[in-house]
Amino acid sequence: MEPKPTPASPPEPQSDLPNVPMPAEQAPETPDSFQPVVIAPTVHGAGLTPISHDPKPAAPTPATLVSVPSSTDSVSTATAATQSTDEPTTPTEVTTNPTPTPALTPANLEPAQVNTTPLSTGPASAVPSEIPPAAETPSPASPAPPAQVFSSTFAPEVPEKKSKKKLFLLTGGGALLALLLAGGFVFGYYLPNTPSHVWSTGLNRTGKALDSIVTSATEEKKLETYKTSEISGNFKATYGGQSYSGELTSAFDDANSDSGLTISTKDKTGKTTDLKVLAKTNIASGNNFPDIYFQIVGLKSLGLDQYIPNISSYDSKWIQIDSKYLESIGATYLSGTDNNQKEVTSSDVAELARSATNVTTDYLLTTDKDKAVFTQQSFVGKETVDGVKAYHYTVGIDKDHAKAYCTALSNAMLSSNAYKKVAQPKDDELAKAKENAAKDCQTTVDEDFKATDTFDLWVDSKYKLVYKVRVYDEKDKGIYTDIGQLYKGDDKLSLFAAWHDTKAKSDSKFTVDTDLKTNATTGTFTAKSDSEDSPYDLTATVKATLSNKDIKFTKPSPTVPIQDVLAAFGYTAPAASSPSTSTTTASVSSKSKDAESKTDINSLEAHIEAYYAQHGTYPTLSLLNNPTWRATNMKGLDSAALTPPDSTATTVATTVSASQYGYTASGCTSSDCTGYTLSAVLSDGTVYTKKSE
């Protein structure tokens, strides 16, 4: 009898069992912890090894390999010749154990993601040490395809009798595995990514993130580091055929500061005008106010003497605002036995910020049915907005909760140390202020919000944080405001507000980017309009960083006291007073009134000429006096320019008087004119006039 062949040791099995994607559900309740929990079952062992039930010793036969890819629809089958058998196969023992859940730590905010790492079937690591940010969570599809099955190259001899017990175990084990996979799919993947769950997670996570950031930023140690900082900035703009540019530098510590600002303009002809402003401050030990020094270089080139006579004589001169002069102005505020108790400190501001954050988290960034201001009206869909993959919702306002939020926020402000130091209210005055604030909240919400008002809200699909809220103009959906944040991972956060006007073809945006680790903050403002009538383009950036440099202060010399400058232009400086007396109100002389009148007339002339440049006609008197027309056609014109000093008039008249400016239009039809004369009566009775060319 020939000896039976010895079965070869089966090769080390491998498996490509598909990993069921299961993202983290809501982050743990710990405010500083946002590490997602990844749930992923792992199959340990040597895979599924079929065993032959042929009663006779089987000759060595090649293995049969069936491969079912987990990520495509194609199926490749490689089959070698094998002995046929009517007997069922029974797999070797399969052990299923869930992957251990990684420990939660108060680390930086991590993405609430889907784990797409394939399951390992060996004894190696089942949970990666770091979970990379996941791509956008895919929409729930059909369950994962069946696992690949590998057979050993040789099968050991088995008794002829069928094993019903093993068959039962195989069937039950397979069913159990299917249930585990299906359960993992439903609870680990599908439910956490349903629109209702993302809505709840987004609001709550954002509230916790905001609370964590504000708490970290207002720690006493961090507040101390802010006392020595550097600020730099620049801007560029084009408007009306002219270009503007400038740079800002500033450094300060708790006692001194040194700053500079340069501005350059270039007109249509290429003529350049430069202006430079330098400023220094120093606060001596024991003083409540600093000594301030500033210098303006380039006043002569601005041609301001026609508006403010002799102002160019102060070109390049250092002007001093003495601390004693400032103290005399602020004597009423600082009166009392202990002025330090009335000084608003960084700790007071930090307390105010934390109070406002707590109230905002309680009412705006929550799904608590008893407090939530936002109510989900509908789920619009998953989309990419501003390059961010997000869940889009239509939301409404719960007016009762909005009133409660407004009242709670007002109470928090009025109860803060900062407010009490500035306003110094008595107990009954504080109670009355809170009562009035609550009434104002009721009125404001009722007047500004309707039960049918809706807004748009997006929750980013990567971190499950609120990305932005969009508020539309009541009459025009083409005009809206966006307010939101963009978390960039690690300690980087971006806050922004944006404004859009479709008809005016204008967009503007203010962004604050903060690195919480380095405490560096960059603010950027952009504004652009492609309107044919008045196009403009503006970009401005300011960056603040911590500094360990000492600011050396050197008093400029010679200097001109600010009191002398004010007196030269008709202002009488308030007399110095003791801490127990009130300040004297500054009186305005006839020269300052005349300067104000000239400024008003010149401002009106500039806007009227700008209108003519666009339309080829001048406005009629009735159009110029129409606030709605001015708001549309003379954007930027201050309505106060129509009111002379010491007057209450809000319109111009055909005939000029001391209490009303004059606008006499000529060659007019019902809607336009070919010429005009602007005029103002000065203090000496003379008339200041501007005419069309």
Give a brief outline of the structure.
This protein has 693 residues and is an alpha+beta fold. It is built from 14 helices and 24 strands.
Strand content: 25-35%
The span between the termini is: 127 Å
Write down the overall geometry: globular
Sheet with most strands: strand arrangement: 12-13-14-15-16-17-18-19-20-6-7-8-9-10-11-21
Put simply, the count of helices is 14
Enumerate the spans where pLDDT stays under 50 for 5 or more consecutive residues.
6-158, 185-191, 331-339, 576-588
Largest sheet: 16 strands, mixed
Mean pLDDT: 74
Helix and strand content put the structural class at alpha+beta
What percent of the residues sit in helical stretches (DSSP H or I)? 25-40%
Radius of gyration: 37 Å
Work out the number of β strands. 24
Structural key phrases:
single chain; 693 residues; alpha+beta; three-stranded antiparallel β-sheet; 14 helices; 26% helix; 26% strand
What's the SSE blueprint?
Layout: E1 41-44, E2 64-67, E3 76-79, E4 95-98, E5 149-150, H1 164-190, H2 195-217, H3 220-225, E6 229-239, E7 242-252, E8 256-266, E9 272-282, E10 291-297, H4 299-302, E11 318-321, H5 323-329, H6 331-334, H7 346-363, E12 374-385, E13 388-397, H8 399-414, H9 417-423, H10 427-448, E14 454-460, E15 466-472, E16 479-487, E17 492-501, E18 506-515, E19 520-529, E20 536-546, E21 559-561, H11 562-568, H12 590-615, H13 621-624, H14 627-633, E22 662-666, E23 675-681, E24 687-691
Parallel strand pairs: 11-21
Antiparallel strand pairs: 1-4, 2-3, 2-5, 6-7, 6-20, 7-8, 8-9, 9-10, 10-11, 12-13, 13-14, 14-15, 15-16, 16-17, 17-18, 18-19, 19-20, 22-23, 23-24
Helix pairs in contact: 2-7, 7-8, 8-10
